[in-house]
Amino acid sequence: MKFWLFPFLIVFTLPCYGDVDLIKVDKSKRRMYLIDNHQIIKEYRIALGKRPQGPKRYEGDQRTPEGLYRLDYVMEDSGFYRSIHIDYPNIYDVVNAHRIGASAGGNIKIHGLRNGERRPAALVQSFDWTDGCIAITNREMDELLSLVKVGTPIQIEW
């Protein structure tokens, strides 16, 4: 069992039985890193929410959350090629949204391209286009799901 010290919170994590024990997202560089035993084993160019700078504050703000979360289930049937859900919001996200009279939302995922997308993946991925999710190409999504298991922690930072 591992634990991560997070501002004002200690999060105990369950062992992850995939090849990857942490996903790290650097929003400022538009990069997602798959990490195994403190080594980067894979790097992806990502697209984010249309307003990527700063943490997600409320549902509909088109921002990608920041903080420590966990991948909690795979979705094969959605508006996107394939996806894995992130367990956003945590208690801090809910409290912060409540303070401004809003809902934190919660439908945040790592996903492939939108179903029916006809433009080349490289073009689509060259700009931020999601409503707050983390997007990669369909091929990369297949690869990610072969390396990452439900329960893997994901650290998202600016």
> pLDDT under 50 segments (min length 5)?
1-17
Radius of gyration: 15 Å
- Average pLDDT reading: 90
Number of strands: 10
What is the number of helical segments per DSSP (H or I, 4+ residues)?
Answer: 3
What distance lies between the first and last C-alpha atoms, to the nearest angstrom?
27 Å
Structural class: alpha+beta
Biggest β-sheet: strands ordered side by side in the sheet: 5-4-3-10-6-7-8-9
Quick structural gist:
With 158 residues, the chain is of the alpha+beta class. The chain has 3 helices and 10 strands. The protein has helices spanning 91-99, 121-124, 138-147, and strands spanning 2-6, 9-13, 22-26, 31-36, 39-45, 67-75, 83-86, 109-111, 134-135, 153-157.
Describe this protein's structure.
The protein is of the alpha+beta class and 158 residues long. Helix content is 15%, strand content 32%. It is built from three helices and ten strands. The chain has helices spanning 91-99, 121-124, 138-147, and strands at 2-6, 9-13, 22-26, 31-36, 39-45, 67-75, 83-86, 109-111, 134-135, 153-157. The protein is globular, with a radius of gyration of 15 Å.
Any chance you could write out the topology, listing elements then pairs?
Layout: E1 2-6, E2 9-13, E3 22-26, E4 31-36, E5 39-45, E6 67-75, E7 83-86, H1 91-99, E8 109-111, H2 121-124, E9 134-135, H3 138-147, E10 153-157
Parallel strand pairs: 3-10, 8-9
Antiparallel strand pairs: 1-2, 3-4, 4-5, 6-7, 6-10, 7-8
